Amino acid sequence: MDRQLYKRYFKQTDNVTFPCPSCTNLSLKLNKDKFFAEDTASSKKMKADDDYWEPEWLTSVFTTVLICNNSDCAESVICSGIGSVDWEPEPNEHGEMEQQYYSYYLPKIFIPTIHFFNIPEKCPDNVKSLLIEAFSLTLQSPGSAANKVRAAIENILTEYGVPRYSRKNGKNNRLTLDSRIAKAKDKNAVLGELENILYAIKWLGNAGSHANSEILQDDVFDAYELMSHLLSELYHSKADINKLAKAIRKKKGPIKK
Question: Does 148 share its domain with 222?
Fold first, then answer.
């Protein structure tokens, strides 16, 4: 997972590439003919009313279309986000360095959403759907995304038969996620081996659920790395891994998805 890819501002002329949500290849390219940007209201007002302003003070929003250049896929993705202005030193016609201003853009939304890691085919739908929701929230609301990953842990435990409730005095009492994780090793030995990962994702999700959440984008990416390993251990059989390795070795490179 290239975390910096989602933190870097890009220029409209840059050769920016993102992972395709359909074929999963790093093949989603900016369609420069379908790029639209507009100054925010505050920037328009500043230009109209203020006698003095600097280009770096301007902000904007943008929408563009990304196209997968994998001919077997050709997915189209809408991307929207925010923009700002900054300068780079460049030589003029006399060879002297001067400030050249450019607009820079940072994605906040992808539709359909980018997958920040590959979800195994055998992953249950009620886990996969929560992770896709998390992906869609990652760049806009990291805390909400972390909370969705936590909810996915709850569903994984349910899939493995870990009870959600305990019976006491004739009443059903909902078990905390802490309690469910502690019981998981009794249902599945692999879950027991992954206990630290389960607890780590739980704590990140808990932090994301607070109104004043301080969860950052990198924290969500931590949760994704943990979840990716967890799902691989639970839903990728050794036979599947060996089959994939043999296919890549035979092709001597990437295989088409």
Answer: yes
Question: Do residues 36 and 95 share a domain?
Answer: yes
Whether 256 maps to a domain, the answer reads no
**CA-based torsion, 245, 247, 252, 253: positive or negative:** negative
Q: Which tens digits make up the pLDDT trace of 177-236?
A: 999 999 999 988 999 999 999 999 999 999 888 777 789 999 999 999 999 999 999 997
The 3-state DSSP class for residue 226 equals helix
pTM of the entire structure? 0.86
Phi/psi at 147 (nearest 5 deg)?
A: -65, -35
Least confident of 84-93, 130-139, 173-182, 203-212: 203-212
Half-sphere exposure of 214 (CA within 13 A, CB side): 0
Helix H or strand E segment including 30: strand 26-39
* Structural domain span for residue 242: 125-251
Does 37 share its domain with 101?
yes
